[in-house]
Amino acid sequence: MPESLCVATLTSMPRPTSRVDRRDSQRAPLEDVFLLGTSTVLPGEDDAKRGRVLVLVWDAASATISVEGSFAGLGAVYSLLPFRGMVLATIGSRLLLLGWQSVVGGSEYELVPLCSEITQIAALSVAVNGDYIIVGDVMTSVSVYHYEETVSNAGLVRRHLVPVARDYAGVWTTAVAAVPPPLSTERLYPDMIDEETGIGGRVPLPLHSQVFGDGGRQERFLVADAFNNIFRVSLSRAAEPRLLVEGRWHLGDLVNVIRPGSLVMDLADPEFPDVFRANMVFGTVQGAIGVIASVEDGRIGRILDRLQTNMAHLLPTPGLWDYDKWRAHV
Q1: Which residues, 6 or more positions from 231, have their beta carbon under 8 angstroms from its beta carbon?
Q2: Tens digit of pLDDT for each residue in 258-303?
Q3: Own/partner pairs, 25-34, CB within 8 angstroms, 24+ separation
């Protein structure tokens, strides 16, 4: 049965047993192919023990789909993500980097694993922020890996997924996504905060939160869990990197997908140019669609923070629910 789907461009890669072949480097990449992840559950099995990644090519002239290659894994292919001409796949409890390599002794190409790392229980989702890769596990929260390349004396390029940090909270993750960088760090990070990372938002309030830092580039991710929460984490710049939780929101609905984008075209507001930016959308199991927008001006962000605080204290809530208790991270 199908589990995941993505569109990617696969770059031809040299064979690992030889130097870089000029024919491999000059071969045109396989552009705009569909990658389909599947799983197979046999009678008597509680979970999928096997799955495949299919490389599908659409021919517009003949209106047909052909299978150009496949990769068989030991588990369900829960998620697929294009990455630098390659493909990141979470299969069972393992994170794999798959490449489009030529078959030894032939001109055909196949999908082969370049490197892999074991996560914990079942890796359900994956997201990329630069060279950093975050994987969401079904029971053990998230872990971050760094992609590295090394060249041997023989000229062979070896790829590695190096574990960097892990969230040790027992969170059942349902979706992960990378947070785009801000447009202007000068407006986002006020001078009043001299710590490496400071949090100025109120956790029980979901409308807006403020995150200040030293202006340096940080990798930030959004994580949704099975208890109807979304929380934002960042990778610290310390000698021993670790994940820092910057904010939490309780939505009251289970989020199962987070994607970059917006519901409308990115039109510049003539009154507030480059201030509000809708850069993420999410979907829930109840059919709701939400937008996650960033406020690129720290001054306006503080005004919105005070506005939501006053609304929570002055306006009655539907059903007379306590606002702080309902929106608190539980």
Answers
A1: 222, 223, 225, 245, 246, 247, 248, 249, 329
A2: 988 878 766 556 565 566 777 789 999 999 998 887 777 778 878 8
A3: 29/85, 29/100, 30/55, 30/57, 30/68, 30/100, 30/109, 32/7, 32/58, 33/7, 33/8, 33/9, 33/57, 33/68, 34/5, 34/6, 34/7, 34/58, 34/65
Instruction: Give one word for 198, left, alpha or beta, with left for phi > 0 and alpha for psi -120 to 50.
Output: beta
Q: Record the tokens describing residue 328, joined without a space.
A: 């608190």
How many C-beta atoms surround the C-beta of residue 79 within 10 A? 24
Q: Which amino acid, one-letter code, is at 67?
A: V
CB contact at 8 A, 298 and 189: yes
pTM value > 0.85: no
**Helix ranges restricted to H, the chain:** 22-26, 185-188, 298-314, 323-327
Distance of alpha carbon 303 from alpha carbon 276, whole angstroms: 13
- How is residue 224 annotated by DSSP? E
275/155 Cα distance (integer angstroms): 48
Residue among 14, 296, 51, 22 at smallest CA distance from 182: 296
Residues paired with residue 278 on neighbouring β-strands, in sequence order? 293
